[in-house]
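pasting for the record
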Amino acid sequence: MPVQALLGTKVGMTQIFAENGDVIPVTVISAGPCTIIKKQDQAVQVGYREIRKEAVERLLNKPLRGMFDKAGVKPFRFVKCLPANDLENIQPQTEINVTMFKVGDKVDVIGTSKGKGFSGCMERHNFNGQPKTHGQSDRWRCTGSTGSGTEASRTWRGKRLPGHLGNQRCTVQGLKVVKIDENKNLLLVRGSVPGADNGLVIIRQAK
């Protein structure tokens, strides 16, 4: 397949049984179908999830509507650039779906982790916290010293401190494709993938 990745959404986790009776934890991904909008340098621009006609003006601005009109395709909710290795054999407006994978393939799944807001250093960086003796009464979960008070007299850049946790791009590599449902465009991979249910993910051939 010239296109090496596919867009989808995470449906959720469940479990299936192998032929020998083993329980396999899997994540169900609604993968595709996607439509190729145009070709770029060593990549293709694809669209996923068509937008209803009555919602186009509400969800898309004028430049995006013009891009879809110029390409001759229907408006899509998600547009991403995916890697491709044989651009000469790729034609715009071609549909790609879950059939580009087969059972037993290894894939990498890219998604956005769940955002957990502001978190302290113990949850964010797995710090041990402060001692609970020798007069410590309200600093059990604090970071402690953050830098020298004489030579540097400041906190160095990159110091692990409390802050925003999650909501970052994550990649889980080497997940095995356990089952494919071509009629419903479902892809079942062993293990977990980043993000919440209904979150956008990119499924690509494992490197």
